[in-house]
Amino acid sequence: MSTQLSNLRLIESYLDDLRSLIEESDRIQSLGVSSEDNDYDLRKLLSKITKFLERNDDGDDYDELVEQYQELLNEVKTIDTKDYEYVRNIHIKPLNNKKSVRFNDKVEEASPKKFKPYKDQVLDPPAQSDTDQLFDGRELDDDQEDDTDSVNSSSNQEMFIQHQQELVQQDEHLDTLAQSVRRQRALGLDINQELDDQNILLDDLEAQLDHNDRNLSSGQKRLKYFSEKAKENGQWITIIILVIILVLLLIILK
């Protein structure tokens, strides 16, 4: 009876581990992360549960547990579960037929006893039930070790998921920073384009100033030339003007 209770508790713990692995698998799939390690643990646990049920399923006590296992198996989406389906095959032992005893009317004559030489008594091998209990104890120890491994694997999976969530948050921060850098780059390009346009306008203004400066220099050179010529020929011009005035006076006076 105690072995039956321990087996029921053990399969319940297996189903709880399976439920947590399925939830972790769905969470990993929603994050878009590879779930190879989780799928490996899932296959290992499903194989363990099917072997356990095939070995210990002996009647009505396992009805609800088998139904829970089938429901959880239908929720698995990341692996193919055809190899892990469990089909119940409970064998009912037939009742032993009543033994019939027949009495023989003829009584055999008593024959003298034949004595055999003495031999050491050979101990019978241990009963099958004792060996079964021994192996069941070893299997329970193995199952407990498997439970410890499953707990460690679940904690490792939780740490892995937490690490993946931190990486996703860091990626989001990096995306925000990248968008800010892109905006700053676009603003810098706009400022650079505006400066190029201003440089073009300044170049045009400088060209116009150079042209006006050349025209002004040319006008100054011409004025200087005329002033120099006027200084050189000033006396002759004065004499010519006086001669013209004298001629006009003579003409008028006559």
From TrEMBL:
Record keyword Cytoplasm present: no
PANTHER family xrefs: GOLGI SNARE BET1-RELATED
Acidic residues composition bias: residue spans: 139-149
Gene3D superfamilies attached to this UniProt entry: 1.20.5.110
Top-rank taxon: Eukaryota
UniProt source species: Wickerhamomyces anomalus (strain ATCC 58044 / CBS 1984 / NCYC 433 / NRRL Y-366-8)
Membrane topology of this protein: Single-pass membrane protein
Stretches for region Disordered: 114-156
Pfam families on file: SNARE (PF05739)
Major site of localization recorded for this protein: membrane
UniProt GO cellular component terms: cytoplasm; endomembrane system; membrane
Keywords, ordered alphabetically: Membrane, Transmembrane, Transmembrane helix, Transport
Domain T-SNARE coiled-coil homology: 164-226
Name the UniProt record assigns to this protein: t-SNARE coiled-coil homology domain-containing protein
Record localization: Membrane
SUPFAM superfamilies documented for this protein: SNARE fusion complex
Ranges that cross the membrane: 234-253
